[in-house]
Specification:
Elements lengths: L3 H11 L4 H8 L3 H8 L7 H9 L10 H5 L1
Helix pairs in contact: 2-3
Length: about 70
Amino acid sequence: MKQLSDFVKQRRKEVNLTQKEFAERTGVALTVVRKIEQGKTNLSVDKVNLVLEMFGHQLAPVNCKELEK
């Protein structure tokens, strides 16, 4: 699976939006979009989910034991 940064950048470009336009549409600050696309790790899950909602996705906790099955 692609990293979050690659996914967001690719999908944003597919819908032909600049980072600024994308930030305005998702309701987050431009710096949030930039941090996501740069792969920064100090992000708010709530802000990331606002961005991902535009593509019908969201981050959620996963039980590690479930991944091992």
